[in-house]
Automatic annotation (TrEMBL):
Gene: Cfap77
Record PANTHER family: CILIA- AND FLAGELLA-ASSOCIATED PROTEIN 77
Identification of the protein by name: CFA77 protein
Organism: Edolisoma coerulescens
InterPro entries cross-referenced by the UniProt entry: CFAP77
Transmembrane segments: none
Domain of life: Eukaryota
Classification of source organism: Eukaryota, Metazoa, Chordata, Craniata, Vertebrata
């Protein structure tokens, strides 16, 4: 019976202190000194890239030689083995051309002299001044347009113009159809 409030113990006994869990490698287990001093270097196998056959060119040349049946084409393909031209596609194992880089290009370094002289602050201030000048010119043009055409709201569309200047109300017409005019008045 298990003890109250405690889990039931299993029936397996643990191995002694000299037992190693997992796989013990005698030849590689030399500690930190061997790991730092003797790196296991794996030599890469040379990658031979096979260029695919160019069946379009071979077929064109076979027709030029007078091949007409499938058997003649097969024999011609065995006789003439033309491969596709290597277009310099970089694949695993190819040599990279000198000067070619991958990833994004590095940002140009920021001139330290410009930082010390607050050059970037001055450039920002000049752009802000130019922006305010442009805003003043635009406001003057809008003011002139509104003086010349007071009903024209430059920023408004038809709906805003009709809200500010509603059209005059139509007068009610007292016209009635002819058939209702012959009705007599009550006495």
């Amino acid at each position: 019976q298990p003890e109250v409030g405690k889990p039931m113990r299993n029936c397996y006994s643990l191995p002694g202190p000299d037992f190693t869990y997992g796989m013990y490698l005698h030849k590689r287990d030399g500690g930190v000194a061997e790991a730092i001093g003797h790196w296991d270097a794996v030599k890469a196998k040379p990658h031979v890239r096979v260029v695919p056959r160019d069946f379009v060119t071979m077929g064109r040349m076979a027709v030029g030689e007078g091949c007409t049946t499938a058997r003649e084409f097969t024999l011609y393909y065995k006789f003439k083995d033309i491969r596709c031209k290597d277009e310099g596609i970089l694949r695993y194992g190819c040599k990279i051309p000198p000067g070619m880089t991958f990833d994004r290009p590095a940002r140009p370094s920021t001139p330290f002299f410009d930082i010390m002289q607050h050059r970037y602050k001055e450039l920002w201030m000049e752009s802000q001044r130019a922006r305010t000048v442009v805003q003043h010119v635009v406001k003057k043009k809008v003011g002139i347009l509104q003086q010349c055409f007071p009903l024209l709201d430059v920023r408004g569309n038809r709906t805003t113009i009709l809200r500010t200047h509603p059209p005059p109300a139509k007068e009610e017409s007292f016209w009635h159809p002819q058939r209702f005019e012959t009705v007599g008045t009550p006495h």
